[in-house]
Amino acid sequence: MARILLLRPPLLVSAWSDSGPLTPPLACAYLASSLRSAGHEVRILDAVGEAPFQVTPLFGGRVLAIGLTSEQIADRLQGEVDLVGISCMFSQDWPEVRRLVRLVRQNLPGVPIVLGGEHASATAGFLLQTTPEVDFCVLGEGERTLVELVEALQEGREVFGLPGLAWRARGRVHLGPPRPRLAELDQIPWPAWDLVPVRNYLEHGLGFGVNRGRSMPVLATRGCPFRCTFCSSPAMWGALWQARDPDRVLDEIASLQERFAATNFDFYDLTAILDREWILRFTRRIRERGMDFTWQLPSGTRCEALDEEVCRSLHRSGCRNLSFAPESGSPAVLERIRKRVDLVRLRRAARSAVRSGLNVKLNIIMGLPEDSPAELRQTLGFLIRMALDGVHDVGVTLFCPYPGSELFSELQSSGRVGELGDEFFLGLGAYKDVSRSSPLASRVGPAALNRYRLLAFLVFYGVQYAVRPWRLMRLVSNLLRGREESRLDKSLRDLARRLRGRGRRPVAEGFPAPFGFDREIPEERKERRARA
């Protein structure tokens, strides 16, 4: 039996980002459950969950770290540990994660350090060459790879040839063969939420989606069959999309309702709705089982399967928020980035969703390398039409060349992306920072690009509130009352909370026993307070 410590680092966001959701560490919880099922002892130290309102300026104030600092994490490295796993999902976090890795090495000399997540999968060679403190990188889907690595180390076997692993030996970086994706998702143990300080998320309304109550994450599908050139998902997951059995997903939801009094579920799926029959079966089974909860699709989903029948079924089953990701209103841009979306069909699906009572958001990217002023104006016109159609929200992000994506490789080969240093990685966090721009859109200058981004918000919300003024009054009312119904409600509250939280100390010191889990639900807490 090995003793494994999984670290979730603090979340890094740009100082003026309107985004940065504080989410329970689903990836760590899945890895922990697989390790525990294999007979190992596991702990999770979740820096965000331990101190969700502690905000620390880093790198001259350019970015904010949310959660325990790396020094505070290092101070908690106690007890016997045989292996440390560190998650690095986003490349903009790497400069701080690297600092954490070095502190872990100082405090736990000789203990193997494994890095996982999308950043590790995309830049394993770079990480192992430049950061000698990292011993291994897990590539892609990590459950089986990490278990097999732990077993090989425990038994003293060589790791050469282990699928899904990168490692350093005799000064050289080695890559094992790609690991096939897990075929049976329902055989993966449910996430080990008992190892996470769940109460800090639940009691403060924190999560990926809009705060509609005590929210927990759920994953019903894995992967995405599309290969958009700006996305690093193909490098992480490949092109295989798989769905779990609807009843198994609902069994997990029922368990979370019972254990945590959860009332809302955020689906973290990359592309949840691809199979029309699957989603209709899922929504039908919710009603047939008499289950009562709300749920959301904050990551974005496809439009092809969403017609009037599906949208009505979504709403009747408790779905309240969903996002579409057209990325652009220009057909030429969509063709260049291989975003296989029909804008006419998407508008039809969005109108059906709005009529069915769903709160709908659009995701748009501006500043792609070949964007032209004319194409950006096409996107503005598209946003006006979507506002008239009744779409509630829009998120306009700045294109950033993400390692692992096809566009990143092209820009790096042409010399338009420089060395992979701190400046580059920290710059990736600018995608939601309204104070920054990008020089990568060669046909649009940085200043003009920022004007287009600002204009996109102004035309969308200006048209929406001119046509539906009651929505503006509802926004103001929600902000005053601390309620959230839309992503705009959430973004504004998140930004205000971060600005208020700079320098605030942690919510909790040390692991709440046992290992950061408190089973007390609101009813029990009321009884305890009444007895006191």
Number of domains as seen in the coordinates: 2
- Please give the alpha-carbon distance between the first and last residues: 42 Å
CATH topology of the largest domain: pyruvate-formate lyase- activating enzyme
Shape summary: globular
Average pLDDT works out at 89
Structural class: alpha/beta
Helix share bin: 40-55%
Write down how many β-strands occur, each being a DSSP E stretch of 2 or more residues.
18
**Residue share in β-strands:** 15-25%
The biggest sheet, with number of strands, parallel, antiparallel or mixed sense and barrel status, is: 7 strands, mixed
Gyration radius, in Å: 23 Å
Poorly predicted ranges: 505-532
Strand order of the largest sheet: 3-1-6-7-8-9-10
The CATH architecture of the largest domain would be Alpha-Beta Horseshoe
CATH class of the largest domain: Alpha Beta
Total helical elements:
21
Look at the structure and name the CATH superfamily of the largest domain. tm_1862 like domain
